[in-house]
Amino acid sequence: MNIRKTLSALAMGTLLGLGALHQALAAEPIKIGSFLAVTGPASFLGDPELKTLQMYVDEINGKGGVDGRQIELVHYDTGGSPKKAVNFVKRLIQKDKVDVIVGGSTSGSTLAVMPLVAKARIPFISLAGSVKIVVPPQKWTFKMPHTDAMAAAKIFGDMKKRGITKVALISGSGGFGKSGRAQSLKLAPQYGIEIVADESYGKKDTDMTAQLAKIRDSGAQAILNFGFGTGPAIVTKNVRQLGIDLPLYQSHGVASKKFIELAGDAAEGVRLPAAALLVADQLPDSDPQKPVLLAYKNKFEAKYGPVSTFGGHAYDGLFIALEAIDRANSTDKEKVRDEIEKTKGFIGTGGIYNMSPQDHLGLDLSAFKMLEIRNGDWTIVE
């Protein structure tokens, strides 16, 4: 059963409910656990993620639940702290006894809890970016966002088309920034690119002009920044303030309107790889993602305002989990895990997912669009 199609049919009044294949279990809710950075420096990730989960759980419950069972969302706000994430995941497993976990806004929090979910043998779908989450694949952990390795590859591919061979790298000191830096250093030679400067900044830094002055004198032909939060916006402003006239690339860690708001006019011309959700209206009608993207975008924006790819990851994770539970006809954790791993042709906001025992993400580079910020909005440049 495709839960999303069923919900659409219900909205038009063509079905009476999602069915009652397991009426005996109707009193027992499906318990979805989540831990997200709703407050703190990563709130631009966690806030739309939580809103998305709540919005769809309420809608599904209002239409009768899944196989006659209501969904109970159990959520804790980590504030972006890996330590809090560990404590909350212990609570989700031991006290709340959730059936599956969809969460982990940041790479640091996700990597910190992976040993716990493996020991507890509970399916976990992460909403964070680091390639380390799924490479090598861990039995109980899956993830929705494109990896930092994919972002670096997409960026370097675009640079190669533009004849850029010397690149200055600057990255945040958090888990995502460090992992993105490592992947960039690893992949650059494959694209004929030399990293001629390698700078970093802390999460509380408010000025990166010292690092950028070194970059200005490095002979770089372009700048790549890996980070999220306010850091990339500060880097973008400082680049313009120093009069550095080089192409500036950001990672998918800034794929929300919040970045454009923070960077202001300095964001003009910045390029980044991102999910097609940000440019759903610009896609051809033949694109199989377009109906899914517009449905989510319109629903979210009608209730909360501008959509971000981060909320989209929560949409993908929730529905992959629920459709796996539906196919398993059970919340047995081993069976649900197996069904998540068998996900094929799932059209989500991040792309079309095809998972396997060797691939707990299920996306390739075609799921990324290369975007450029023009006139304060996103434009597809390929």
Question: What does this protein look like?
Answer:
- The structure is a single chain.
- Helix content is 40%, strand content 18%.
- By secondary structure, it is of the alpha/beta class.
- The protein folds into 2 domains: 3-147 and 285-365, Response regulator (Rossmann fold, 3-Layer(aba) Sandwich); 149-280 and 368-380, Response regulator (Rossmann fold, 3-Layer(aba) Sandwich).
- It has a 5-stranded parallel beta sheet, sandwiched between helices.
- α3 (82-94) packs parallel to α4 (107-120), α8 (231-241) runs parallel beside α9 and α11 (309-328) crosses α12 (333-341).
- It starts with a helix and ends with a strand.
- Mean pLDDT is 93; it is low at 10-26.
Structural class: alpha/beta
- CA(first)-CA(last) distance: 36 Å
Round the Cα radius of gyration to an integer and report it: 21 Å
* Whole-number total of structural domains: 2
Determine the CATH topology of the largest domain.
Rossmann fold
Instruction: Provide the β-strand percentage band.
Output: 15-25%
Order of adjacent strands in the largest pleated sheet: 2-1-3-4-5
For the record, what CATH class of the largest domain applies?
Alpha Beta
Keywords:
382 residues, alpha/beta, Rossmann fold, 2 domains, 5-stranded parallel sheet, 4-stranded parallel sheet, 40% helix, 18% strand, globular, amino-acid transport, signal, transport
